[in-house]
Amino acid sequence: MSELYQRLTDFNKDLLPDKVQLKYEAMSENAFRFFRGTCHLFYEDLAAAEPLPLSPLAWICGDLHIENFGSYKADNKLVYFDLNDFDEALLGPASYETVRMVCSIFIAFDNLGFEEEKALKMAQLFLKTYSATLAKGKAISIEPRTAKGIVCNFLTEATKTTYKDLLKKRTVSKKKSIMLALSDERHFKLEKSLRRELKSHINDWIQTSSDGPYNYKVIGSVFRLAGTGSIGVNRYLFLLKSTNTKNHYLLLDMKQARPSSAQPYVHVQQLQWETEAQRVISVQQRMQNVPAALLSTTVFRDKPFIIQELQPVKDSIKFKLLDDYRDMYQVIDDMAALTASAQLRSGGMQGSGTLDDLMSFGADQGWQEAVITYAQHYAVTVKKYYREFLKDFKKGKYGIDSDGRKPEGI
Length: 410
What we know:
Elements: H1 3-12, H2 17-27, H3 31-36, H4 39-48, E1 57-60, E2 69-73, E3 79-83, E4 90-93, H5 94-111, H6 116-136, H7 149-160, H8 163-170, E5 171-174, E6 177-180, E7 187-188, H9 192-208, E8 216-224, E9 235-242, E10 249-256, H10 276-287, E11 296-300, E12 303-309, E13 315-316, H11 325-345, H12 355-363, H13 368-395
Antiparallel strand pairs: 1-4, 2-3, 2-13, 5-6, 7-8, 8-9, 9-10, 10-12, 11-12
């Protein structure tokens, strides 16, 4: 039994067994997808490595990589481009956010077939813009009016997508009504008793929560699959219908929150959150310029969940679809400024370094080379892990072989 196999299966042992198989299958796609699904390995290895240069504490999303930025509609109805995944969020050294992001650049660009020199230039660009934004001490935000290049095009297209388009993708019409589509490969049918229990729970949440949408009721629910690292947690999608506006619907996502996989390896005193879901949305609200619409929490069957609206505009830029190096340059530049802005926005809050601390860190160039060197070396380690994982996955060691068959005893 290999050490890697043990580390992966130990971490995933408490997830839903049938969905873990789908997580492993997703991780087998390429080294970047493997990296996205193994945040715990990254922090475990970082804790055991030679320490990075000291950096101020900051609120970090914890799992920063090039596909954890995207568009979303905020409470003020504007569409923003920003960090959009906070499942692993916690208080930690500011440099931890940058080293994971830079590592993702090396892995993703290698996966896309770009030479190492171009990846290195992108990594250097990210750290240069991140540092310059910190040093200025002024957070920025990106929405259609302030966006440039490919991000501007991305947000402009996002604003054109309507709820009708989203419903068409996620639902089917039946007898003059609509229901959630089970033909979608990310939707799974729920047992009738669980469906009833969930319906009652969300209807109660709508009635009692100040965050809930008024005058709506649940008319359908499915199990939902999304992401990579979060595959295997309990996650549900609800179709809500307005009780006072004809043919008006909402889609609500409800995802189980687990402890941050970074926390055991980040030796910083953390706040005692009421629930893990409260940790996620609290950090999200302090790091994003304007919080996402209908962001809330609940507890179902003694497990904490994050609730948010499933939006037609919420999407991530897919780097594999970008073939223009100049487009990537603009996107990485924007991501760097947004990363620094999120840390500035939450600076001085409950243990985070002050704005002066973060500005001084940005003005200091001495730490950047250490971050790039570690990220380059760790990208090689990830590719080595991925090759070992893929070999064992194809043999069926992770519960299913490359032909989709379960080995005996599984």
